[in-house]
Amino acid sequence: MFIKTISYKDFDGNERSEDFYFNLTQSEILKLETSLNGGLTSYMNLMVQKQSQPDIMNIFEKIIDAAYGIKSLDGRTFTKTPEALAEFKSTAAYDKFFMEIVWTKQKHPSSCSISCRMILTIRSRRPLNQEFTMMLH
């Protein structure tokens, strides 16, 4: 579980600070890894080498979309629904979070923000693989 506290200004101009939750199960990580020919890791390495910003942003969005959810108060469940994701994506918090990822990549193409690193290793207890980890540093 990755908890990201995001401070932002809502659409009424109010300052807010909220915790947002991201989690990928082992099976979800496997599905992401195998969703692309050659694997997610190889694809990301190739996109970083090519400095293909649109492809990198699309993968980050795919990972965020797959990981975002709502943790129950008792911690027993983590609910992921299209409605919850759409609500999150309609907030200024999502915009701030996504731009943090994108701007870090544009300023430093061979690095990744702490947010990206955390999302990519959620619940894996280890990075997806050693080469991918090297790319993120």
Detail the topology: elements first, then pairings.
Layout: E1 2-9, E2 15-22, H1 26-33, H2 40-50, H3 53-67, E3 68-71, E4 78-79, H4 82-89, H5 92-107, H6 114-120, H7 130-136
Antiparallel strand pairs: 1-2, 2-3, 3-4
Report what the structure shows:
The chain has 137 residues and is of the alpha+beta class. The protein has seven helices and four strands. It has helices spanning 26-33, 40-50, 53-67, 82-89, 92-107, 114-120, 130-136, and strands spanning 2-9, 15-22, 68-71, 78-79. It has a four-stranded antiparallel sheet. α3 (53-67) packs antiparallel against α5 (92-107). It starts with a strand and ends with a helix. Residues 122-137 have low confidence and may be disordered.
Q: What is the terminal separation in angstroms? A: 21 Å
Please work out how many helical segments DSSP would assign. Answer: 7
Poorly predicted regions are: 122-137
Query: Judging from the principal axes of the Cα atoms, what is the shape?
Result: flat
Mean pLDDT: 79
Output the structural class. Answer: alpha+beta
Lateral strand order in the biggest sheet: 1-2-3-4
Q: Any idea what the radius of gyration is? A: 15 Å
- The ordered string of helix (H) and strand (E) elements is EEHHHEEHHHH
Fraction in beta strands: 15-25%
Main sheet: strands, sense, barrel: 4 strands, antiparallel
Overall helicity: 40-55%
Number of strands: 4
